[in-house]
Amino acid sequence: MTAFDYDLFVIGGGSGGVRSARLAAALGKKVAIAEEFRYGGTCVIRGCVPKKLYVYASQFAEHFEDALGFGWSVGERRFDWQKLVAAKEQEITRLEGLYRKGLANAGAEILDTRAELVGPNEVRLSATGKTVSAERIVIAVGGHPSPHDALPGHELCITSNEAFDLDQLPKSILIAGGGYIAVEFANIFHGLGVETTLIYRGKEILSRFDQDLRRGLHAAMEEKGIRILCEDIIQSVSAGRDGRRIAATMKHGEIVTDQVMLALGRVPNTRSLGLETAGVKTDERGAIVVDAYSRTTAPGIFALGDVTDRVQLTPVAIHEAMCFIETEYKNNPTSPDHDLIATAVFSQPEIGTVGMAEDEAARRFAELEVYRAEFRPMRATLSGRKEKMIMKLLVNAADRKVVGAHILGHDAGEMAQLLGISLKAGCTKDDFDRTMAVHPTAAEELVTMYQPSYRLRNGERLP
Ligand SMILES: Cc1cc2nc3c(=O)[nH]c(=O)nc-3n(C[C@H](O)[C@H](O)[C@H](O)COP(=O)(O)OP(=O)(O)OC[C@H]3O[C@@H](n4cnc5c(N)ncnc54)[C@H](O)[C@@H]3O)c2cc1C
């Protein structure tokens, strides 16, 4: 008989929290989970899921155009933003219901309240003021978009949170940021017919991705009509008399626009969580410090997902939760594996990537072979669209292992998932070469690039 109210108390009903609570409850543990907003968390309510639905919506304009080349005549087109928002709301509500059902079926107690730590094993529930105790506590509270307080007029701007539910689709938008969220929203809004400008302080968008893809995507986005201003920042935002926003930029003067969206990073939800009282340390950014097993500095308290600022992706939060369960409840110490995470940017064209970017691989390996193909995909031939696809494999010449695979083009995200398996399995370039092509596909290029496009020795390109 435990001396605590619960075996496990989970704070946060997002990707990581729900998985922890559901699996522990299914193992017969007495579990409670608290969520202050909506079950499903960022991913389901205002992240991956609604984003991807909006990506689909935004692609139709091009589909209609492309259809002409294949013999179709498309009649009058009209887009209804309110209809999309309502349909999205219906879908995320359905998913939220499934999350709750999964928890209830496993036997977890579902609490709709904010929860804060008040001691090493104690949590206070804001809705009732009640304090409960638990043998173990998982903190999976995620993060929120940085409000960028230092920017004069930041309160006039929106973030990704608001972008999903705007009353009206703006005629124009200025998006600040160069990460995947900024880039994806720039493509979404542009596809829906919004005059879109992206402003980013760095030299090139998507800083941690392969240079080729970054440049290729930049060019493709500009070709579509998205204005991209690199090496520039917004210095202030004010409201004009007509209610529009006036953004003063450092290099490009004033930009008058309907909305300014800030996509300048995310901040862990650790404020007023009682971490100090419980002895849980955070880093300078407010992220919870954890060891290889997601243990915080306080015994019995664990943290996982975005709040720990390791890799901020849904499958990573879920994986960290599963490792926690293995370690704590199945006597099988398992630390999360953050190596070779395949990922996508749902830009248009899409990016799919796994492993090292060329710069990084060139620093790491004495000799690197680069296999690169840039071509017009078959679907663009009849449509007449100029878009190019880029595929790239990076191979460590010493052992022939493929250490990076990068794709820009349609369905790149889908391909990256499968490439993730190959790289994780340690496949060599020879394994790729002896794999039969699927024809006619764009992906067949991945197994038919027989000769390196170029080689790098000690980071220098060989003649
Ligand atoms: C616009 C956008 C697009 C994204 N797209 C992708 C994508 O395509 N692919 C991908 O893999 N990832 C994507 N992500 C990232 C992904 O959403 C996160 O990595 C993931 O949701 C992290 O899960 P989590 O459990 O750590 O936190 P969250 O999902 O953020 O869940 C935390 C929950 O805790 C709740 N909470 C916070 N404090 C408390 C408290 N004190 N008490 C009770 N509840 C509390 C919050 O309300 C929230 O519901 C995207 C994120 C954004 C913002």
UniProtKB/TrEMBL annotation:
Residues 6-321 form the FAD/NAD(P)-binding domain. NCBIfam families: gluta_reduc_2, PRK06116.1. It catalyses: 2 glutathione + NADP(+) = glutathione disulfide + NADPH + H(+). Residues 341-449 form the Pyridine nucleotide-disulphide oxidoreductase dimerisation domain. This is Glutathione reductase. Pfam families: Pyr_redox_2, Pyr_redox_dim. Homodimer. Its cofactor is FAD. Its EC number is 1.8.1.7. Catalyzes the reduction of glutathione disulfide (GSSG) to reduced glutathione (GSH). Belongs to the class-I pyridine nucleotide-disulfide oxidoreductase family. Coiled coil: none annotated. Keywords: Disulfide bond, FAD, Flavoprotein, NADP, Oxidoreductase, Redox-active center. GO terms for molecular function: glutathione-disulfide reductase (NADPH) activity. It comes from Sinorhizobium kostiense.
